[in-house]
């Protein structure tokens, strides 16, 4: 396995490096700043992976506890955001191993993402009632298709398509090679297309 190139500590942004060092020194203000800057990102990724609001809130708390317990080990091997993503994914994977299936997705976070970003809307007619209904129905189908994917494939597609991470960042977050990332994304997209085609035909 060819290791990914690491970012040296000196390449990490000056403000971020100072923030990390202050957090490692148990500076409460710095810890509060880190939470404030990253809590929305952590919650949204947790929600996309687990599909449940309360579970996502609980996981977010676990993630930040883990961040502050281990931040002294961070040496700029990635962007801080990517390092935190990796913790979210590991914690979510552990949680999903025992999570009761009856608590599965009740809230579709991608629906909110689409409404906020207008990814599926045609320019100039986003307010049309029929277009809004089409977007909502498509978002529901996408969420159902995502929910059916294996955890690792769902994680890869969420990191790429929702969070906009590069292949290299996804590889670091998942702890796999670039080839594995590309393979997971290919399989995930094929499965999503097949499921969406099937539900559209019903």
Summary tags:
mainly alpha; elongated; disordered N terminus; 202 residues
Q: Would you mind describing this structure in some detail?
A:
The structure is a single chain. It is elongated, with a radius of gyration of 18 Å. It has helices at 14-24, 28-50, 53-70, 80-98, 109-117, 129-147, 151-162, 167-174, 178-201. 71% of the residues lie in helices and 0% in strands. It starts with 13 loop residues before the first helix and ends with a helix. The chain is mainly α.
Task: Briefly characterize the structure.
With 202 residues, the chain is mainly α. It is built from nine helices and no strands.
Low confidence ranges: 1-12, 100-108, 119-125
Approximate helicity band: over 70%
What's the Cα radius of gyration?
Answer: 18 Å
Whole-number average pLDDT?
80
**Outline, from the CA principal axes?**
elongated
Write the H/E string, N to C: HHHHHHHHH
Structural class given helices, strands, pairing?
mainly alpha
Strand content: under 5%
Per DSSP E runs of 2 or more residues, the count of β-strands stands at: 0
Chain-wise SSE layout:
Elements: H1 14-24, H2 28-50, H3 53-70, H4 80-98, H5 109-117, H6 129-147, H7 151-162, H8 167-174, H9 178-201
Helix pairs in contact: 1-2, 2-3, 2-4, 3-4, 4-8, 5-6, 6-9, 7-9, 8-9
